[in-house]
Design brief:
It is built from twelve helices and 14 strands. The protein is of the alpha/beta class. It has four domains: 81 residues, no CATH class; 113 residues, Roll (CBS-domain); 51 residues; 90 residues, CBS-domain (Roll). It holds the Pfam family CBS.
Length: 379
């Protein structure tokens, strides 16, 4: 009998009388027999009737169990009522009913109404507890290739948010030991959150105004639904724009073919739409978003601790690494998490040349932001 199979065999020693046949071979046996109805008679006809009744009772007693399937489990029940088995059956049916309800609710929440935060496809959130050490959190982030985690309380509600930037600025840049400090001490407590039915435009506008890269998303029950990453949102929007332009360009070219063959004029609305998409596709260049402030640079011998302190001082999450005046690498706050803290290196003694990305790609100033995002996303 498998572990998932319960057999409801009643105790045959309960509610049984004494053996009515003193001269029966069963008198010296330990096998109890049910008491037949009525008192035994001395006549042979009465004895015969009693034996027939006894035989019928034995047939009922030896009837194979009736199988009851509940969900994926198999229950066996004797013809006699078994309250304990019935209680187990009811509990299993209730549990299955709850699971079906939760599954249907999950399917319902996965539907993304157009124009809402849910339509932006928030990423699955990595969750940790406040008592987790920074080094443990870094190891988890490195294993999942994430640069953001949500901190949850005992009720699995959002208590804070912790990012690679926080680790670089508030831990390494401040000179703290990652193994001696907990997430609760340096996380951003009670972060702003969006709901799944919040307008996507409002959520993105909030992230831009506040300078947030990550925004937690909750459903109507205050349960965690995911995390928005603004760079991913912009990249997805660019892809949609490219697909729209490609489709409109094909329509535009088809209309041009009709015009050349039939001499008909193209609908002005189509021309204006394609030109508007073309303008958006070209978009602003990198030169338009540069503020004229030179990038922060360090030497190859600079320690990770010093580099993180410079990031914090200059409000940047990346520094360029120079060797004899030439750019030889780039070092970011994400590198602090993945390549320094997670492997257990000491930021005070580890130089950036050991953990930087060597020979980084460069972009010309006239490159469009769209092309730059595509290039960065491919990394």
């Amino acid at each position: 009998m498998s572990a998932n199979t319960l057999r409801g065999t009643p105790n045959r020693n309960q509610a049984r009388g004494t053996i009515p046949f003193a001269n029966s071979p069963a008198a010296g046996s330990n096998i109890p027999r049910p008491v037949p109805d009525g008192q035994p008679s001395e006549t042979s006809s009465s004895v015969s009737a009693s034996r027939q009744k006894q035989s019928k009772r034995d047939e009922v007693r030896d009837t194979p169990p009736v199988e009851l399937r509940v969900g994926t489990r198999l229950l066996a029940q004797q013809p006699e009522a078994n309250p304990q088995l019935q209680a187990i059956r009811r509990k299993m049916e209730n549990d299955l009913s709850k699971k079906k309800h939760l599954t249907s609710r999950a399917r319902h929440t996965r539907k993304a109404p157009p124009g809402t935060v849910l339509a932006l496809k928030p990423s699955q959130a990595l969750q940790i507890k406040p008592g987790t050490t920074v080094s443990e959190a870094a190891q988890l982030m490195a294993a999942k290739r994430e640069d953001c985690v949500l901190v949850t309380d005992d009720d699995d509600r959002i208590a804070g948010i912790f990012t690679a930037k926080d680790l670089a600025f508030r831990v390494v840049g401040a000179g703290h030991k990652a193994s001696h400090i907990t997430i609760a001490e340096i996380m951003t407590k009670n972060p702003l959150c969006a709901r799944t039915d919040t307008s996507a435009t409002d959520a993105l506008d909030l992230m831009v105004r506040k300078g947030f890269r990550h925004l937690p998303v909750m459903d109507e029950n205050q349960d965690i639904s995911g995390v928005l990453d603004i760079t991913k949102c912009f990249y997805d929007a660019m892809e949609k724009l490219e697909r729209a332009y490609s489709s409109s360009r094909k329509l535009y070219d088809a209309l041009e073919g009709v015009h050349s063959e039939l001499g008909s004029t193209q609908p002005q609305q189509i021309i204006q739409y394609v030109e508007a998409l073309r303008s958006k596709m070209s978009g602003p260049t990198l030169e338009t978003v540069l503020n004229g402030i030179p990038p922060t640079t360090v030497s190859v011998r600079t320690s990770v601790k010093e580099a993180a302190a410079l990031m914090k001082e200059n409000h940047t999450t990346a520094v360029l690494v120079q060797d004899q005046g030439a750019i030889t690498g780039i070092f970011t706050s994400k590198d602090v998490v993945l390549r320094v803290i997670a492997p257990g290196l000491d930021p005070a003694t580890c130089s950036v040349v050991r953990v930087m990305t060597p020979h980084p790609d460069f972009a010309p100033m006239d490159m469009t932001i769209q092309a730059a995002l595509r290039k960065m996303h491919g990394k």
